[in-house]
Amino acid sequence: MQSQTSETSFWAKVATNLGLVGKFDLEKGAIALIYIVQGALGISHLALSFFLKDELGLSPAQSAAMIGFAMLPWTIKPLYGFISDCLPIAGYRRRPYLVFFNLLGALSWVFMAQAVHTPTMALGTILVGTLSMAFSDVIIDALVVQRARAESEGDAGSLQAFTWGCMSVGAIASAYFSGSLVEEFGTRPVFMIAAILPILDAVAAFAISDAKISFAQINDELLKVTAAQELDQPPSSAPEASLEPDHSDRPAVNTFQLAWQNVRQQMKQLWQAVSGKSILLPTLFIFLWQATPSADSAFFYFVTNDLSFNPEFLGRVRLVTSVASLVGVWIFQRYLRDVPMRRIFLWTTIISTLLGLTSLLLVTHANRMIGIDDRWFSLGDSLILTVAGRIAFMPLLVLAARLCPVGIEATLFALLMSVLNLAGLCSYQLGAGLTYLLGITETNFENLWILVTITNLTTLLPLPFLHWLPADGGNMASLNNPEQPEPNLGSTPELLSSSNNGATKLDIASPEPVAIASNNQSDQHPDAAALVAPEVDAGSSI
Length: 542
Description:
Number of strands: 0
Number of domains: 1
Largest sheet: none
Strand content: under 5%
Low-confidence stretches: 231-253, 473-542
Mean pLDDT: 73
Number of helices: 21
Helix content: 55-70%
CATH architecture: Up-down Bundle
């Protein structure tokens, strides 16, 4: 009975977040639209993969390498956080950036549709698009973190689950049409459709609450956070008088001097936040987990060239994995919120690795010998791996949001996501190197089984370092207090969750809709939903 009440409570919160119950919250509605658009940008995934393979004629290794390089803007997200936190435009820290970079993203898609004809032009355009998406993502992440901090103890994670749910809704809405649109109209018209979506985000930005603030106020805010850190207390619980900055001897400074002071102050606070073992070690673990090599690109070529999966079917697989992503969120909220993080990582990694090895049946065509059709096998494998990936990711996202201190939430959250995306870049480059060394091409898949085996087994390598994560005594319930400076689980920012291979991979920065159950990534993260918007979409899906 208690669990049923808890489940009802969760969906009641979701309904309230959506404005279906009580007074409609315009800002939450805008945040929902932004995340829905992130998921809907997945409409370009298949188009982009086919564009690189068919129109530009790239090999599997070249395609993987290009995707890796295209993720570069996601690896410097702290820079965007610094800019947003310290350098307001016309007195506003969030809205102007959200509008500008979404419009820039729309232009990049238009250019991709109309003017790109070489790999060099494609890479340049994709880099501009990823820059726009990454910067926008930092802004919206900061807004969500700010709102998450205000949640009551019983609502821990509800906003994170809500935003992920919105993203999944967008992914579901676009997945059904992504393949059929490519099949019917080709890749470039799909890019034009994708260009419309960032414009919606730019419009939604005007509904986002963004209090006007001066450089001097930002400087005072940062000084207050520093004082709280020195007292080893969160800003909201430390005595107000002890945190108020002393202006008695502060000389008059101009705007540019204040801006520089703000940047220096943020760098100091960021260093204080990440230099402790409670944050550093979990971050290193997540990097290792995500950086293992990926077989995505090679697998995409296999399922399209060898198995002859057409765009429409690949779109159906994306639809299945998008629904599975929602199922993963529900399972976490319903059953796993109180499970220690180490246990979730251990078992999702082991189970994902075992499940990922089943893709060897597809690569060797052994599934046909036991009477399982290629398409049904791919659908089932992708569905299971996506659920596992989302379950692995949710606790990290909640924990990360709780650890971001006031004043540098955009920067710290962005740093954590950048570590994840840097690991994703390493994953794709390692995968590209292995693909090349094994002689896998667009027509030769003789050694693909070796690549799939390597990418799955290497997922187990980080497990000896599980002790870097919060102690088993700590679970999500212990994070319910948003003011808690150092939860007993080690206060770590492992929002970065994604074991690049194994079904637990969340494909955080992977724009490519690659492989059905390749090395089994299974989901995307909040850092994107298309090549120009990675960090979000069902890996082991296509």
